[in-house]
Design brief:
The protein contains three helices and six strands, in the order αααββββββ. By secondary structure, it is an alpha+beta fold. The chain has a domain of about 70 residues: Beta Barrel (OB fold (Dihydrolipoamide Acetyltransferase, E2P)).
Length: about 170
């Protein structure tokens, strides 16, 4: 009789553990759902972010100025002489790359920024309007831009200095 009770107790404990295992999903191996994958990605991102080196103070100051310009673009909210709203900010720097509808500008702090160029973007050299093709890699520019949907859209690009023309190669006669 005592032996039967012991086996019944053991069977009850094993049955309880098996039921608990099924309830917890320990025996079922399914693919993680989207929420679990997102949580795992967030953990990994945080781990990697903790290993990144701290940014340079100069970069932080430059980014702070840019963000301040984007958040508080124009205190007056005034309009220009043409009736259009004034550009949110401006950047001065050297053209690092010229694309069909964008310019990559390296500003005075060394940060590279992408400026989108649209059909209504004005290109100036002094007071004269020039062609978009006048902007070449290496040119020094000042561009006024608006921040639209997180992208810098150039309103006006002023050429301050053309790129330095490389000296012609001198070939010595034999």
């Amino acid at each position: 009789m005592q032996r039967v009770r012991r086996w019944a107790a053991i069977a009850g404990i094993l049955g309880g553990l098996w039921g608990l295992g099924l309830a917890c999903g320990g025996f079922v191996t399914e693919e993680p759902n989207a929420r679990e994958r997102a949580a795992r990605s967030a953990v990994l991102r945080n781990l990697l972010a903790s290993r990144e080196k701290a940014p340079e103070p100069q970069e932080l100051q430059s980014q702070r100025r840019e963000l301040q310009t984007e958040v508080h673009p124009d205190e007056e909210g005034a309009k220009g002489g043409s009736g259009q709203a004034r550009a949110a900010a401006s950047v001065k720097g050297t053209v690092a790359w010229v694309g069909d509808d964008e310019l990559l500008v390296r500003d005075t702090s060394g940060m590279e920024r992408e400026l989108l160029v649209q059909d209504d973007t004005r290109f100036l050299r002094g007071e004269r309007q020039v062609s978009r093709r006048a902007v070449e890699q290496g040119a020094e520019i000042r561009a006024s831009y608006d921040v639209l949907q997180g992208e810098w859209v150039a309103r006006e690009v002023e050429l301050l200095r053309a790129p330095a023309v490389p000296a012609p190669l001198l070939i010595e006669a034999p």
